[in-house]
Write a structure and sequence with these properties.
α7 links the parallel β7 and β8. This protein is α+β, with helices and mostly antiparallel strands and 351 residues long. It is built from 8 helices and 12 strands. The C terminus is likely disordered. InterPro entries: Endo/exonu/phosph_ase_sf (IPR036691), Endo/exonuclease/phosphatase (IPR005135). Pfam families: Exo_endo_phos. Keywords: Endonuclease, Exonuclease, Hydrolase, Membrane, Nuclease, Transmembrane, Transmembrane helix.
């Protein structure tokens, strides 16, 4: 038994060291490399356990033990360079809102991937009643979910519904007027995203992009990312660079991000992650506490400050809802530039 456990321990150590090192190729077109980008928290923890185990149990050190230690330490360093961005060891990218003035505009957003096969709507409705957000973004909405969520219409008179049955339906509810909404299909005709212009009153307008790109892997009967190079967010980035208003990007990005927004969207110093310097707020997987990482994100331009960020309780989905309160600082100038088209892949959706 001791021999078997030793072999298992070595196999785990070799695998976690190898996977951590290979994860530096996360942006290659090999989807399995990209998948190594997600469990960095788990790789980091297991690497520490393996290093401690090696020092405790190995009595006679050999060359392969030293090589394994070097591999584990290398993986530990690689993963820490990503994870450190979500600790208090680095400065926040989006400043905390302090001494909010009456001229500043505050509002809240609740985003939730409801999981299309989940048929428990009551937990989400109760959370909405509790938090009373100004905007609600629901993803993976099919016809059943769209019907059940219509109870929100009295409190949320403005909405956009684009429904499908391949887990990429999306609904946006708003207390504020949606002056303009375009339904875009960035890389896949089954995967909608919304480009909204919203009037917050008192002369303040924001751009609100809600997205749910396909994951970097293949699932039978679902929209697939093969050959698309995960470029949906880069296409979105071109639009954001030409923004006319303070802008928000929110949704299940199917990517852990790890604060590398510029790289992900092809922009530079335009979008900022509200999580940086504050914590992971892991939104997936709500059904397995051992396999969790941040998939649902709120990215904002420089005009915003963060008042509150919360991961909300389970609602029966494999994602936790995320709640955020933002403030537009009134003394910052609006962005300049004109809106750009999303390329020839842009189409108007059917509601």
């Amino acid at each position: 038994m001791k021999k078997v456990l030793t072999i298992v321990f070595y196999v785990i150590s070799v695998c976690v060291a190898l996977f951590s090192i290979l994860s530096i190729f996360r942006n290659s077109e090999i989807r399995y490399m990209k998948m190594l980008d997600f469990p960095r928290i788990q790789f980091f923890i297991i690497s520490i356990i393996c290093i401690i185990g090696l020092f405790i149990f190995i009595k006679k050190w050999k060359l392969y033990n030293y090589i394994l230690i070097i591999g584990l330490l290398s993986g530990l360093f690689i993963n820490s360079t990503f994870l450190i961005n979500y600790t208090s060891l680095v400065a926040v990218e989006v400043s905390t809102a302090k001494d909010v003035k009456t001229s500043d505009q505050a509002f809240s957003i609740l985003l939730s991937n409801v999981k299309m096969t989940n048929r428990k709507v009551t937990p989400l409705i109760k959370l909405i009643e509790l938090k009373n957000p100004d905007f609600i973004l629901a993803m993976e909405v099919d016809t059943w979910w769209d019907t059940e969520l219509k109870v929100l219409e009295n409190d949320y008179p403005y909405s956009q519904h684009t429904i499908n049955d391949v887990t990429y339906g999306m609904v946006l509810y708003s207390k504020f007027p949606l002056e303009k909404v375009e339904v875009n299909y960035l890389t896949n005709q089954n995967v909608p995203s919304f480009e909204s212009t919203i009037n917050l009153g008192e002369g303040k307008t924001i751009g609100f992009h809600t997205v749910h790109p396909v994951p970097p892997t293949h699932f039978k009967n679902l929209p697939d990312n093969a050959g698309q190079q995960e470029n949906a967010l880069k296409k979105l980035g071109k639009v954001i660079e030409g923004r006319k208003f303070p802008t928000i990007v929110a949704g299940d990005l199917n990517d852990a991000v790890w604060s590398y927004i510029d790289e992900l969207t092809g922009t530079k110093n335009v979008l900022y992650d509200v999580r940086v310097g504050r914590g992971f707020f892991n939104s997936f997987n709500a059904e397995n506490f051992l396999m969790r990482w941040p998939l649902d994100h709120i990215l904002v331009t420089e005009e915003f400050r963060l008042k509150k960020l919360e991961r909300l309780p389970k609602i029966g989905s494999d994602h936790f809802p995320i709640y955020v309160e933002l403030v537009i600082i009134s003394n910052l100038p609006e962005a300049t530039g004109g809106a750009q088209e999303i390329s020839n892949n842009k189409m108007i959706g059917q509601d």
